[in-house]
Amino acid sequence: LGKTYVNTGPGKDARWPDAHVMFISEAVAGLEQQPDYRYWGAFMKADLRDGADDPSRGSFFGLTWRRIHHPDFARYSFSRYELDLRYFVSPFTQRDTVAVRAQAWFTEKSPGRQVPFYLQPSVGGSEVRGLDPGRFRDENAVALNFEYRLRAGEMLQLVGFVDSGRVFARPGEIQLGKLRYSTGAGVRLKLDQDIVAGIDLGWSPQGLHLWFRSSHLF
User: Fold this and answer.
1) CA 1 to the chain's CA centroid
2) 0.70 exceeded by the pTM?
3) Count of C-beta atoms within a 10 Å radius of residue 24
4) Which of 129, 167, 168, 211 could be cross-linked to 173 through a Cys-Cys bond (beta carbons 3.0 to 4.6 Å apart)?
5) What is the rounded distance in angstroms from the CA atom of residue 68 to the CA atom of residue 76?
């Protein structure tokens, strides 16, 4: 697939068209006005994993609520709910782990209000490794990750993964049947339980993407 890069500033780059040329400012929330925001919120979490760096068993639950507000640009004020669920199990031996993660970002706002594009959740890169970072962006998003991790030696761990996700305008349009998928494999270099370095190679219809890591994705 061909790629078009857009210069969103600051400054100009003759190689890429300016965002003001590519888009009508009224159609892209926050393109002309980028105010300073006030944030507040609350969160709760339950961490039942047997380790934070490289868990093999257990689960994790996280729920966050944030209010993002600016008194001078009320039309860009909104609330964001973030859900993070993880589960780990060793199905066959002590050297392998199945890891599953589900994430969701939901936006709540009053009629007539918008979410600036730079504050919209995105899917790509750290959510779906076969896509460019921030490839898809909207007011709501969901991402699902599956990994099989195998300890192949004292310092070597092999990883196979399937990632998926999508963005959507309204919470009722989640439609999991329309997820975008990527697959891939990775290698982790470990020292005891700590990951020293690693790489992931993800594939999707967009092509191959190589990522360098200093920890697991989750």
Assistant:
1) 22
2) yes
3) 8
4) 168
5) 8
